[in-house]
């Protein structure tokens, strides 16, 4: 998979004003990560970062719960501006940065969150960076999307000669990549969610408002006539089923940085 960071940034900058209208699934995924984190009765003084923080929902929740040292990172400055303006207090830091190359020292954070963001990244680079900035014993609470995501969308576009959905990685691919960096994965969970639409335009609008259309439209432009034919195919499916469904496969896990350096245990 090769996604252009510039294109991703542009899409999310455009989506910043509309993202919260359509991000109910992403909210649920973020809240599930928070619940896992809270089970450990964490201290309020932990250094916590949210990688790909978007409009700041997760940081807002952490702030309301009394966590004091919060830092949000995102590549899209408009997302960060929305996040900053929605924070209940001004102490949260925000930095415009690529989560694959964070401008922070090694072992800086006790806890990392990243919700619905690493699917836009090279997983090896993202995992290596999460390992680098977590202190030994630190924990990352991560969620992303798996290969069944947007399967209906993929099949219609592919039947028109367009491979329009980028390849989301499977649980086993993610596990292997994260564990190769020295992170230990815990509680890897998969949940299928279905979003239903009662007209084709709403479905297209929803994907666009999320900023996700760069996951779905390949760079090669789709001609007007092919797009009309794709639209008509979705309309046929809607007419025969009464509803259009899009599947999202949410994958979540905890990534724990061990106290020993990777491979150190094999040396005597
Ligand atoms: C689907 S949104 C999720 C936002 C937020 N985490 C949430 O739960 O609502 C994905 C976010 O990841 C950001 N993003 C994508 N690639 C990134 C990267 N390489 N580094 C930092 N942020 C990135 C986007 O700008 C966007 O704000």
Describe this structure in words.
This protein is α/β, with parallel strands linked by helices. The protein has a domain at 5-146 and 167-192 and 250-266: Rossmann fold (3-Layer(aba) Sandwich), CATH 3.40.50.150. Helices cover 41% and strands 24% of the residues. It is built from eleven helices and seven strands. The protein has a seven-stranded mixed beta sheet with strand order 3-2-1-4-5-7-6, sandwiched between helices. Strand 4, helix 6 and strand 5 (134-145) form a beta-alpha-beta unit. The chain is globular, with a radius of gyration of 19 Å. The protein starts with a helix and ends in an 11-residue tail after the last strand. Mean pLDDT is 91; it is low at 264-268. Bound molecules: S-adenosylmethionine.
Spatial gap, N to C terminus: 39 Å
Task: Give the H and E element order.
Answer: HHHEHEHEEHEHHEHHHE
Unreliable runs: 264-268
Strand line-up of the largest beta sheet: 3-2-1-4-5-7-6
Topology:
Blueprint: H1 5-15, H2 19-22, H3 24-38, E1 47-51, H4 57-64, E2 69-74, H5 77-86, E3 93-96, E4 109-115, H6 123-133, E5 134-145, H7 151-159, H8 171-180, E6 183-197, H9 200-210, H10 213-216, H11 224-241, E7 244-257
Parallel strand pairs: 1-2, 1-4, 2-3, 4-5
Antiparallel strand pairs: 5-7, 6-7
């Amino acid at each position: 998979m090769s996604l252009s960071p510039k294109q991703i940034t542009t899409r999310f900058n455009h989506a910043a004003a509309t993202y919260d209208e359509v991000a109910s699934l992403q909210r649920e995924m973020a809240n599930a990560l928070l619940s896992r984190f809270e089970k450990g009765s964490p201290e309020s003084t932990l250094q916590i970062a949210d990688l790909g923080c978007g409009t700041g929902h997760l940081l807002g929740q952490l702030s309301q719960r009394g966590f004091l040292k919060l830092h949000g990172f995102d590549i899209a400055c408009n997302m960060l501006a929305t996040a900053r303006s929605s924070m209940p207090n001004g102490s949260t830091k925000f930095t415009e940065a690529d989560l694959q190359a964070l401008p922070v020292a090694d072992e800086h954070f006790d806890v990392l969150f990243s919700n619905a963001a690493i699917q836009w990244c090279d997983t090896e680079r993202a995992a290596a960076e999460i390992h680098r900035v977590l202190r030994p014993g630190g924990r990352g609470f991560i969620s992303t999307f798996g290969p069944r995501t947007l399967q209906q969308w993929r099949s219609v576009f592919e039947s028109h000669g367009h491979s329009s959905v980028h390849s989301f990685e499977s649980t086993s691919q993610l596990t292997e990549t994260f564990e190769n960096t020295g992170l230990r994965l815990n509680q890897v969970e998969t949940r299928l969610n279905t979003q239903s639409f009662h007209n084709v335009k709403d479905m297209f609008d929803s994907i666009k408002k999320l900023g996700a259309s760069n996951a779905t439209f390949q760079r090669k432009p789709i001609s007007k006539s092919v797009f009309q034919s794709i639209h008509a195919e979705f309309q046929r499916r809607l007419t025969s089923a009464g509803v259009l469904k899009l599947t999202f496969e949410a994958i979540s896990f905890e990534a724990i940085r061990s106290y020993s350096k990777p491979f150190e245990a094999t040396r005597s």
